[in-house]
């Protein structure tokens, strides 16, 4: 019997330990075992039924404003345990303090934002969608579209890179909508998600069963879904394909939101000027190094005018050279580890694939690790690749989920915009320049192939929120290979957890809505 602590799952309003050997979570820098997770033996069908039959009605009995109060109380509880979460992130994700903040404080900020947004909806229990319209000449009989909270549950299958933010950016709008939540965090970094759920559940804020967590294997989770449930998945395109073919979606029409791969871009406009070039170099270096490049929104391709290729390579490389890599417990370290040995090996394999068509401009392998054993630690310095030929497909099709980006030149702006779109749909593209008209044109040109376009000019250098930072007020998601999903965007996020229907009735009936 292992002496490593086994984290409990919460399902059906009760805590349950898995009955199998489970998986041991490791410190990606030290290689030491931390905790175990296991979901073997859980009665998923019964737990899901409890959420639908008990937690759902209890949540829907509350108004939006009342549910918003619960979100605010949950944020307060989480804030009181913030130091514990930072310690877990350091040990389990290998992140430096600033990178842990992106996940932990980002999650708390998103939760608090939805608590405030929910107050604006007041004491209602459903939402109106547009104005009523007459269905004939006589105005007595009209149609009014409404949004009603779903009667099922929301299942979240989350990625390893944001165990806090990935939970709360989905759970906040779901719970505000009156929908119970079951979260299945990625195994490698499940500890932080489990601990946050445990703290909120133990505080007794939400109705029993409104917030559940299943750690370990995902086997059986989709089988337990019924037609009125919804599913939100964040992860690889390969796994997304498997999910889309599952009977829950293909036969039972479970509504799904999917965020998959994304080869995001940064584009420097022609005649952008030295300030814009410096802003681009600064943001590319930041996106490559924050959370060791393990962000679905990180910059993977950097497009610059052909004449500025060398200058851009030097400017980005100079910033990367200052990055200290190693044990996040050392205060001099600015970039920690990849989350696991398998992730480290996947990044190495992706690098090798890109290097068949690109050369190394800044070699991350040359960064000496601080307080970390290279034979054990999953640490890798930031690597900038480049190619004078932007044509090869591998440069646009390969997402290396780590501290890696590729610099590519373009001729005309039209060619540069076409190259950005070769990512086949991305979460975000950022555009750097000075002239408002040129920036506006580029943003509109890229909008249909991206969930978000981040436009940076020198006048907002100190104000912009960052290429890769997902703000709850703006949409997160993207078309094509990015998954075709939408999350956040303020109150727009509630739409996923509601059903739109039309009520056709006499005007006095509709007036009461």
From TrEMBL:
Keywords: Oxidoreductase. NCBIfam families: PRK11903.1 (NF008868). Residues 23-458 form the Aldehyde dehydrogenase domain. This is 3,4-dehydroadipyl-CoA semialdehyde dehydrogenase. Pfam families: Aldedh (PF00171). InterPro entries: Ald_DH/histidinol_DH (IPR016161), Ald_DH_C (IPR016163), Ald_DH_N (IPR016162), Aldehyde_DH_dom (IPR015590).
């Amino acid at each position: 019997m292992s002496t490593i602590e086994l984290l409990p799952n919460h399902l059906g309003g009760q805590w349950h330990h898995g009955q199998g050997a489970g998986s041991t979570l490791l410190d990606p820098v030290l290689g030491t075992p931390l905790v175990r997770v296991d979901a073997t033996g859980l009665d998923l069908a019964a737990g899901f039924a409890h959420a639908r039959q008990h937690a759902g009605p209890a949540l829907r009995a509350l108004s939006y404003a009342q549910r918003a109060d619960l979100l605010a109380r949950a944020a307060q509880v989480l804030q009181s345990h913030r130091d514990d979460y930072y310690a877990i992130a350091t040990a389990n994700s290998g992140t430096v303090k600033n990178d842990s903040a992106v996940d932990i404080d980002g999650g708390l900020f998103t939760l608090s934002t939805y608590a405030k947004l929910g107050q604006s909806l007041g004491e209602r229990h459903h939402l109106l969608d547009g104005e009523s319209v007459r269905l004939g000449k006589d105005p007595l009989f009209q149609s009014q579209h409404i949004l009603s909270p779903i009667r099922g549950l929301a299942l979240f299958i989350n990625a390893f890179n944001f165990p806090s933010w990935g939970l709360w950016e989905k759970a906040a709008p779901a719970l505000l909508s009156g929908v119970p939540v079951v979260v299945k965090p990625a195994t490698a970094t499940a500890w932080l998600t489990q601990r946050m759920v445990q703290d909120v559940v133990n505080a007794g804020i939400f109705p029993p069963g409104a917030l559940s967590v299943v750690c370990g294997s995902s086997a059986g989770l989709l089988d337990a879904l019924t037609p009125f449930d919804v599913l939100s998945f964040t992860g690889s395109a390969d796994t997304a394909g498997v999910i889309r073919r599952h009977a829950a979606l293909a036969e039972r029409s479970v509504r799904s939101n999917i965020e998959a791969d994304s080869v995001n871009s940064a584009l420097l406009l022609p005649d952008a000027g030295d300030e814009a070039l410096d802003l681009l170099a600064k943001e590319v270096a930041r996106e490559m190094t924050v959370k060791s490049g393990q962000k679905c929104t990180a910059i993977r391709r950097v497009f610059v005018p052909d004449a500025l290729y060398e200058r851009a390579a030097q400017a980005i490389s100079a910033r990367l050279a200052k990055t200290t890599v190693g044990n996040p417990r050392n205060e001099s370290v600015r970039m920690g580890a990849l989350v696991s040995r398998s992730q480290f090996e996947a990044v190495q394999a992706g690098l090798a694939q890109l290097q068949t068509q690109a050369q190394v401009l800044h070699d991350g392998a040359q960064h000496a690790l601080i307080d970390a054993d290279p034979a054990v630690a999953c640490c890798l310095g930031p690597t900038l690749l480049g190619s004078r030929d932007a044509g090869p497909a591998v440069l646009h099709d390969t997402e290396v989920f780590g501290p890696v980006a590729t610099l590519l030149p373009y001729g005309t702006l039209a060619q540069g915009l076409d190259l950005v779109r070769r990512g086949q749909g991305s979460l975000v593209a950022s555009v750097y320049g000075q002239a408002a008209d040129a920036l506006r044109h580029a943003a509109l040109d890229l909008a249909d192939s991206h969930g978000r376009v981040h436009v940076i000019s020198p006048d907002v250098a100190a104000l912009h929120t960052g290429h890769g930072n997902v703000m709850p007020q703006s949409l997160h998601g993207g078309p094509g290979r990015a998954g075709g999903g939408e999350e956040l965007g303020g109150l727009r996020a509630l739409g996923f957890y509601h059903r739109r229907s039309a009520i056709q009735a006499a005007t006095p009936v509709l007036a009461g809505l």
